[in-house]
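To fix ideas, we reproduce below one chain and its tokenised fold.
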Amino acid sequence: MGRILRELKQRGELKEPKRRVILAKRRSRRLYGVRKPGDYVAQRPGDLVQVDTLDVRPFPWITLKQFTARDVISRWDVIEARRRATATTAKEFIETLEQRMPFNVKALQVDGGSEFYSDFEEECQRRKIRLFVLPPKSPKLNGCVERAHRTHTEELYEVYEVPWNVTDLNPRLQKWEYVYNCIRPHQALNYRTPLQFLKDNGIVGSDYSSNLSHM
């Protein structure tokens, strides 16, 4: 068959059609986010907060998005559920994490998800928060927040009965957030809570109390 096709081509009786060039759709160009410089090292709480979204699918017909922010130094987490992960909901989450983290946030690190473009990027710039964007297919570089997702799944969603609508779920998430930050010891912090770690390092005063409710 190959020989016949080759002979037909040589005699000009068979001509291949011209190939159509189809360009892959490109993402919008980044206006503010950059790769994290190699010499940028987080040394204090707030220097680098990793942000990502977790798909929460308790039933085939229900899908929620949990925004998770984890400070890589103190392991302090902020979580919030939304119906969808969009640039607008991601922008609103910046307000949430700045309100509920007991220190100034200097830099955020995100993957290339579409929710971290547009309004989200502009909000980071407006608040003067540095924005670092991971290279494609490199979730390990956001390992702290990936580990947070596993913990919240195994210790909250797989253990407790929680409501599956955003209005009722978020107060429940805040209670769990309090337990996670202020009661649950962390092996990475020498079995201290993130709150105790912050107190021991003078980031918050000894009389500091979270604004979250107890479970």
The chain has a mean pLDDT of 90. The radius of gyration is 23 Å.
